[in-house]
């Protein structure tokens, strides 16, 4: 069967930063649902992408919600700045938070959806006691920090485990997959229980990014 219930979030990390306006318009004109915004600090991950001023510039032209993935240590320092720069969803890393419950509460108090991202080595079971306080879990299917990496297959098991874990306490939980996603694995990810597909290089690296988004949005699954 064909499903279009899932969401597609092109990752701006793979855009042409010198032509950012054009790439933002491409996402606006496509069937994408969200903009995925990767913020890095060179400490939590071994790379630096762009910061809140650039995100704010994107927000000015974006006609779809900004899904912000904070790959930074001690993210509490920047939650308000992130909201003010236009975030609709704020996702922090499990591995970067000492008081995750407090951080998630702070995100929701700002009026944003609260997300947690898990590195490939972090089991989904560690989220058991905060599942009710979450809107989204981002399962990293590559080690965070860079676009264009190879998808890690253990991700399928993690999606199924999380779907089961959340079934009673938070059935509306959105499961997002980030890293190495494209038409080759999208159907299998949706079958496993994913709701949001982040796609960087498979969209922006495509000959026609609008068509690439369309293909992901109308992927055949089941
Ligand atoms: C990686 C970022 C991803 C990245 C995905 O650390 O979180 O969002 O842009 O890029 P692709 O889709 O190329 O793997
Ligand atoms: Zn990301």
TrEMBL record:
<feature type="binding site">
    <location>
        <begin position="200"/>
        <end position="201"/>
    </location>
    <ligand>
        <name>substrate</name>
    </ligand>
</feature>
<protein>
    <recommendedName>
        <fullName>Ribulose-phosphate 3-epimerase</fullName>
        <ecNumber>5.1.3.1</ecNumber>
    </recommendedName>
</protein>
<dbReference type="GO" id="GO:0019323">
    <property type="term" value="P:pentose catabolic process"/>
</dbReference>
<feature type="binding site">
    <location>
        <position position="69"/>
    </location>
    <ligand>
        <name>substrate</name>
    </ligand>
</feature>
<feature type="binding site">
    <location>
        <position position="36"/>
    </location>
    <ligand>
        <name>a divalent metal cation</name>
    </ligand>
</feature>
<keyword id="KW-0170">Cobalt</keyword>
<dbReference type="GO" id="GO:0005737">
    <property type="term" value="C:cytoplasm"/>
</dbReference>
<feature type="binding site">
    <location>
        <position position="38"/>
    </location>
    <ligand>
        <name>a divalent metal cation</name>
    </ligand>
</feature>
<comment type="pathway">
    <text>Carbohydrate degradation.</text>
</comment>
<feature type="binding site">
    <location>
        <begin position="178"/>
        <end position="180"/>
    </location>
    <ligand>
        <name>substrate</name>
    </ligand>
</feature>
<dbReference type="InterPro" id="IPR026019">
    <property type="entry name" value="Ribul_P_3_epim"/>
</dbReference>
<comment type="similarity">
    <text>Belongs to the ribulose-phosphate 3-epimerase family.</text>
</comment>
<dbReference type="GO" id="GO:0006098">
    <property type="term" value="P:pentose-phosphate shunt"/>
</dbReference>
<keyword id="KW-0862">Zinc</keyword>
<feature type="binding site">
    <location>
        <position position="11"/>
    </location>
    <ligand>
        <name>substrate</name>
    </ligand>
</feature>
<dbReference type="GO" id="GO:0004750">
    <property type="term" value="F:D-ribulose-phosphate 3-epimerase activity"/>
</dbReference>
<dbReference type="Pfam" id="PF00834">
    <property type="entry name" value="Ribul_P_3_epim"/>
</dbReference>
<keyword id="KW-0119">Carbohydrate metabolism</keyword>
<feature type="binding site">
    <location>
        <position position="180"/>
    </location>
    <ligand>
        <name>substrate</name>
    </ligand>
</feature>
<keyword id="KW-0413">Isomerase</keyword>
<keyword id="KW-0464">Manganese</keyword>
<feature type="active site" description="Proton acceptor">
    <location>
        <position position="38"/>
    </location>
</feature>
<dbReference type="GO" id="GO:0046872">
    <property type="term" value="F:metal ion binding"/>
</dbReference>
<feature type="binding site">
    <location>
        <position position="69"/>
    </location>
    <ligand>
        <name>a divalent metal cation</name>
    </ligand>
</feature>
<feature type="binding site">
    <location>
        <position position="178"/>
    </location>
    <ligand>
        <name>a divalent metal cation</name>
    </ligand>
</feature>
<keyword id="KW-0479">Metal-binding</keyword>
<feature type="active site" description="Proton donor">
    <location>
        <position position="178"/>
    </location>
</feature>
<dbReference type="InterPro" id="IPR013785">
    <property type="entry name" value="Aldolase_TIM"/>
</dbReference>
<feature type="binding site">
    <location>
        <begin position="145"/>
        <end position="148"/>
    </location>
    <ligand>
        <name>substrate</name>
    </ligand>
</feature>
<comment type="function">
    <text>Catalyzes the reversible epimerization of D-ribulose 5-phosphate to D-xylulose 5-phosphate.</text>
</comment>
<dbReference type="InterPro" id="IPR011060">
    <property type="entry name" value="RibuloseP-bd_barrel"/>
</dbReference>
<dbReference type="InterPro" id="IPR000056">
    <property type="entry name" value="Ribul_P_3_epim-like"/>
</dbReference>
């Amino acid at each position: 069967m064909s499903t279009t219930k899932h969401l597609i979030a092109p990752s701006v990390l793979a855009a042409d930063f010198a032509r950012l306006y054009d790439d933002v318009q491409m996402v606006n004109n496509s069937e994408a649902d969200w903009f995925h915004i990767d913020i890095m600090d060179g400490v939590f991950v071994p790379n630096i992408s762009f910061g809140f001023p650039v995100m704010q510039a994107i927000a000015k032209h974006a006609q779809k919600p900004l899904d912000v993935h904070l790959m930074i240590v001690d993210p509490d320092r920047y939650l308000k700045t992130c909201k003010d720069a236009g975030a609709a969803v704020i996702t922090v890393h499990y591995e970067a938070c000492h008081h995750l419950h407090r951080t998630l509460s702070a995100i929701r108090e700002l009026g944003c959806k609260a997300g947690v991202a898990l590195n490939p080595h972090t089991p989904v079971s560690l989220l058991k006691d905060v599942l009710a306080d979450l809107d989204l879990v981002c399962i990293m299917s590559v080690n965070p920090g860079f676009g264009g990496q190879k998808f890690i297959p253990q991700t399928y098991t993690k999606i199924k485990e999380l779907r089961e874990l959340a079934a009673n306490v938070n059935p509306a939980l959105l499961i997002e997959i980030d890293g190495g996603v494209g038409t080759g694995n999208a159907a299998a990810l949706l079958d496993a229980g994913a709701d949001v597909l982040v796609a960087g290089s498979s969209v922006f690296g495509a000959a026609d990014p609008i068509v690439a988004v369309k293909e992901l949005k109308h992927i055949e699954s089941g």
